[in-house]
Design brief:
This protein is α+β, with helices and mostly antiparallel strands. The protein is built from eight helices and 19 strands. Strands 1, 3, 4, 14, 17, 18 and 19 form a seven-stranded mixed beta sheet that branches. 28% of the residues are buried.
Length: 481
Amino acid sequence: MVSTAKIKSVDFYRKIPRDLTEASLSGAGLSVIAALAMMFLFGMELHNYLSISTTTSIIVDRSPDEDYLRIDFNISLPALSCEFASVDMSDVLGTNRLNITKTVRKYSINKHLQTTGSEFDSGPVSLRVKHDEDNDEEYGEGSVTLNADNFDRISHQHAILVVNFYAPWCYWSNRLKPSWEKAAAIIRERHDPEVDGRIVMGKVDCTEEVDLCRNHHIQGYPSIRIFRKGSDVKDDHGHHDHESYYGDRDTDTLVKTMEELVAPIALDSPNLSLEDKSGTTTENPKRPAPHEAGCRIEGFVRVKKVPGNLVISARSGAHSFDSTLMNMSHVITDFSFGKKITPRVMSDVKRILPYIGASHAKLNGKSYLTDPDDHANVTVEHYIQLVKTEVMRSTHQLIEDYEFTAHSSLTHALSVPVVKFHYEPSPMQVLITENPKSFSHFITNLCAIIGGVFTAAGILDSILHNTMRLVKKKVELGKNF
């Protein structure tokens, strides 16, 4: 059995009896300094261990071929009516989608960007509006000419007022004119305004009555509005509440529609409520007209990862637009690419890389505005270059983000102005990988700090002690002589 003495012989840390050691003031000072140095270096090493370092590399985008890019947007246009606002998409591969509605919502807003009602119902819009065949048959002026002076008076004299807001230069207005006047003449014969008084058909030339058309938010020609006396109440701004008609424009359809409007109203009480309580429904689409001239468009689209365009414009297959009266001013509340990032994930990512996400919403909050009443006829283009950024922690993906730069320009429109977002995805992607730190490396550095400081302090103490002893000896020798 190994004796205790033999075990003690391998002791590397032999103890010196306390009565053989001598404490000094300099040694005490160095001990305090050494302890403070150890604490400081320990704190620095602990901070470095707890902090996260990353490695950034550029690689070819490894997204699968069938992967689509999602574009989320929330854009307010205070001078474009929801009635004609259209979201279109095209790309370099030939994809062309017009008037996207499945994933897009529209809300009427005022010039202060405040919502004025529920979601705007785009409804089923016919791809082809039927008109009368061209012929040389003469037609009279069956409709009543309305202007700013007689509009309110006539609208309150009759239970229903149906108005054709038109422009003489408009192709579609000229296509509508014969059937409109014929239908108006037929309705006038069947329902004499002087005797019946339930319905009258009128027309407004928007090139002459600019303010009247603007008050009713007319942006496309021709626009057919249905005013009901029972519900035609002006708001604080003098605007009327009315319906829009989007059905066929041939004489027979127009006459049928007018008769369906008149049917629920009793002949002897033309001034009572005009709600349709007959239980019948019309085949011709009639929807509430926008309460305000502006529109907020929000939603998303999925596109291929190739250069393309997202365009917001005024679009209709049976209306004309006066480009000199179009104003495409807009405020971008949100415009982003890729999946939505939750606040929790974003905070976790920012712990790894503090500045990630600083460019994934580059356009948010930006305004490209002119006075809504200033018809600038300006197209606003946003040129966007985006790159995929992927953050990896160990072996799993933490987040996939799309950073982008955006440059905007305002140009005079040669035709109807639009808002265009031209996006160009990069074929490369940024890969950010977290570098894990070893706990054993932290312990090794900690031991090195303690041992190094202790040894350095011991050397300094020995040098200082020996120096002071030599000085003291020389002083004593000087006294002896």
